From TrEMBL:
Species of origin: Aramus guarauna (Limpkin)
Gene Ontology molecular function, alphabetical: actin binding; microtubule binding
Gene Ontology CC terms, in alphabetical order: cytosol; dendrite; microtubule; microtubule associated complex; neuronal cell body; synapse
Superkingdom of the source species: Eukaryota
InterPro entries tied to this protein: MAP1
A GO BP entry: dendrite development
Official protein name in the record: MAP1B protein
Length: 134
């Protein structure tokens, strides 16, 4: 069965089918966090302590505001309020706006966003980095 462009928003286009949740330590959000591949069902099912959000292409809508909002909506349906850390790989306008506009909801849901501008200084050099402790 082929799907035409008009059917792309149907319930059958869900990337992650309904079912029991899967718990992981670290998840890279697929396809540069594009909304064509990740929805609320993804975050309801794929539960992680850390999500890596890549994408720095506003023309391609990456990362997608819809994906970031889906994280909030999906996480709100988890039974526990375990801490989740979001790790953006780039400092994008979409990420900054989402962070500012949803900061209170992030706090309510125990979601922390690491600054993409974190820097490590070692001896005489410094470089961008992110540390994840598991």
């Amino acid at each position: 069965i082929s799907k035409g462009p008009g059917n792309s928003k149907s319930a059958k286009s869900t990337v992650v089918p309904p079912g029991p949740p899967v718990y992981l330590d670290l998840v890279y959000i697929p396809n540069h966090s594009n909304s064509k591949n990740v929805d609320v069902e993804f975050f309801k099912r794929v539960r992680s302590s850390y999500y890596v959000v890549s994408g720095n292409d506003s023309a391609a809508e990456e990362p997608s505001r819809a994906v970031l909002d889906s994280l909030l909506e999906g996480k709100a349906q988890w039974e526990s309020n375990m801490q989740v850390t979001l790790i953006p790989t780039h400092d994008s306008e979409v990420m900054r706006e989402w962070y500012q506009e949803t900061h209170e909801k992030q706090q309510d849901l125990n979601i922390m966003v690491l600054a993409s501008s974190s820097t490590v200084v070692m001896q005489d050099e410094s470089f961008p980095a992110c540390k994840i402790e598991l």
